[in-house]
Amino acid sequence: MARYLALRIAQSLLTVFLIVSTVFVLVRLAPGDPAAAVGGPLATTEDLQAIREEMGLVDSVPQQYWHFITGLLQGDLGMSYSFREPALDVVLERLPYTITLAGAAILLTALVAIPLGVFTARRANTGWDLGANVGTIAGQSMPEFWTGIMLLTLLAVVVPIFPASGFTTWSGLVLPAVTIALLQVALISRLVHREMAANLAAPYVTVARSRGSAERALTWRYAFANSSIPVLTALGTRFASMLNGVVVVEVVFAWPGIGSLVVRALETRDYPLIQATVLVTSLLAIGVQLLVDLLYPLLDPRVRVGKAVSR
Amino acid sequence: MTLLDVQDLQVELMTEAGVVRAVDGISFTVDRSETVTLIGESGSGKSTTAMAVQALLPERLAVVSGRCVVDGVDVVARPREAGKLRGRTIAMIPQDPMTALSPVATVGRQLGEVLARSEPGLSRSARRERATDLLDSVRITDPRRQLDAYPHQLSGGMLQRVLIAIALAIDPHLLVADEPTSALDVTVQAGILDLLLDLQDRTSAGILMITHDIGVARLVSDRVHVMRDGRFVESGEVEAVVGAPQQDYTRRLLDAVPRLGAWTDGGVA
C-alpha cells in the first residue's frame, strides 16, 4: 500500500510538471505581448523594452524556462504583472472561493442526483421516469451562461431574493451553485439511473429478493452499494474539473475565484499568474483524483490488493 | 401433504417482440420430502415456472394466471403474501452461484442478514456461531475463516454451498433449485446434488428442480415433467419417463445426451 501510494504520488508530480511545462511554452507561443498589456496604448518602444527587461522577457525561452524551474523549486512563481504581487499569493487568495463554490455545487449535485437516479431506476418505464428523463435532457441542454443569467434575472432582479454577484453573504453562494448543479445533476442522475437499473436487474438482487430481503435493502445495500464506484468516480472527476475554475459561472456571477482570475490573467498576458494558476489547480485536481482512487478499495473488495483468502 | 399445488398455470411475458406465452397451462404438485423435476431445453418455460412459483416475476412484465398454492397461500391471487413466504417457507438455489451474491459484502454478512430475519433473537456472536455451523453443514472446510471471505475469493462450487447454506438458514419447506449445477464443473456437480439430497433427508423439504440435464433429473427426481413450449409433453415417475419415453420429443431429448459406453450397455442409475 505504501509502495502503491509512493508510486502514485510520483506519477502525479510528473504529470503536474509536464502540464506546467507545456503551459509555459504554450503561453509564449500565443499571440499578444505582456509588455503592451502592462504599458498600455501610449507606451513608447523604449518604455516597452524597459518593461520587457524588468519582466525578464528579453532572455531566450530556454533561459526563461530555467529561471522558472529554479524559482518553482524554491516556491517562487514570479510576480504577477497586473497585480504586482507574488503570483502564487494571488492564486491562493482566490482559491478558497473556488473551493467553496465547487464544494457547494458538488454536494448539491450528489444530494439531488443520487436520490433522483435511484428513484427513477426503481420506477423505470413509468411516468416518473419519463418526466425525470425530460427534465435531465433539458438540464443537459441548457448552457451554464444561459441558466446563470436566467436565474439572476428571476431570483436577483425580478424577485430579489438572492444577491446578484460576488460573495459577501452566504446567500450569494446559492445562485452560482445551483447554476452549476443543474447541469451536473442532469449528467450524474442519468449515470446513477443507468448503474442502478443494471444492478437492480442483477441476479444477486433477484436471489436476495427470493430469500425475503426488503425492497429498501435491495435498493441500497445491494444495488446502490454496487453502483457506488462509477458514481463516486464521476463525482470526483466533476469536482476536480470544477476546481480548475468554473470559468463561465464565475464570470456571470462576478465570483472572486480561480475561474475569473484565469480570464483576467489571459487577457493581460500575465505569464506568471497563468503559470501559478495552472500549477495550483492541476495539483488540486490530481490530488482529488488520487483521493478517489484511494477510496475504491473501501467500496469494492475486488480491487483490494494483497488480502487473499484461500479457496 | 401437498406443499406446492400448481393448477393450470399460465404466464405471459411482455417482451420487445410482443407477448410471449412462456408457460401455457401446466399443473403439478410437490409433496414434502419429494423432488419433482421440470426438464426441458432453453426457452421451454421451466425457469419462468420457477420464478412464478416464488412470485418473483416483475409485475409489469408478466401476467400470471391459474392457481399456485404454496403452503396454503395462492401466490398468483395474492402476490403480496407471497413476499412473506419468500425467505420463510420457500428458498431458491440459483443457477449461477458466481453472480448470486453481492460482490461487495462478505459471505458472513449476507448469511447473517438472513439469520437476523429468521432468528431475530440471536445476538451478534450467536449469529456468527450459527452461520459457522451452517457453512459446516454444507461441508465447507474452515467455515469460520470463510465467513470473512468475499464472493470473488471463493470458487463456484464453494459459492453454491454457501447459497445452499443461506437457503437452509431459513429452514424452508420448499426449495426451488433452478439449474443448481449447470454453471459448475462436472466434478463439483455431483457433490452439490449429493449435498442437496442429503439435506432433503434431514429437513424433509420438497424440492422443485429445474434442469436441462437428463443425468441430473435421473439422479435426484421422484417425478419428472418434460416441458416444451410452455407445456408438459410427458410426466411420470423418473424411471418410466427416462427408461421408456412415450413421446417423440422426450426420446430426442434423451438422445441428445452424449453417452459413455457403459451407460448404453448397462445403465448407471
UniProtKB/TrEMBL annotation, chain A:
Which UniProt keywords are present, listed alphabetically? Cell membrane, Membrane, Transmembrane, Transmembrane helix, Transport
Residue ranges occupied by any ABC transmembrane type-1 domain in the UniProt entry:
95-292
Listed InterPro entries: BPD_transp_1_N, MetI-like, MetI-like_sf
Q: Which GO terms describe its molecular function?
A: dipeptide transmembrane transporter activity
Q: Name one Pfam family in it.
A: BPD_transp_1
Task: Give its localization.
Answer: Cell membrane
Q: What is its main location?
A: membrane
Q: Which GO terms describe its cellular component?
A: plasma membrane
Topology in the lipid bilayer is annotated as:
Multi-pass membrane protein
Please list every transmembrane segment annotated in the UniProt record, as residue ranges: 12-30, 95-119, 145-164, 170-188, 246-266, 273-292
* Family named by the database record: Belongs to the binding-protein-dependent transport system permease family.
- Tell me what this protein is called: ABC transporter permease
Which organism does this sequence originate in?
Jiangella asiatica
Q: What is the lineage of its organism?
A: Bacteria, Bacillati, Actinomycetota, Actinomycetes, Jiangellales
TrEMBL record, chain B:
Which GO CC terms are listed, alphabetically?
A: plasma membrane
Identify its membrane topology class.
Answer: Peripheral membrane protein
Which SMART domains does this chain map to?
AAA
Every ABC transporter domain range: 4-254
- Tell me which InterPro entries the record gives: AAA+_ATPase, ABC_Ni/Peptide_Import, ABC_transporter-like_ATP-bd, ABC_transporter-like_CS, P-loop_NTPase
Localization in the cell: Cell membrane
Q: Gene3D superfamilies from the entry?
A: P-loop containing nucleotide triphosphate hydrolases (3.40.50.300)
GO molecular function: any one? Answer: ATP binding
The principal location of this protein is membrane
Q: Answer whether the UniProt record assigns the keyword Transport to this protein.
A: yes
**CDD domains documented for this protein:** ABC_NikE_OppD_transporters
Tell me the keywords, alphabetical order: ATP-binding, Cell membrane, Membrane, Nucleotide-binding, Transport
Describe the family membership recorded for this protein in Swiss-Prot or TrEMBL: Belongs to the ABC transporter superfamily.
The name this protein goes by in its record: ABC transporter ATP-binding protein
Per the UniProt record, the lineage of the source organism begins with:
Bacteria, Bacillati, Actinomycetota, Actinomycetes, Jiangellales
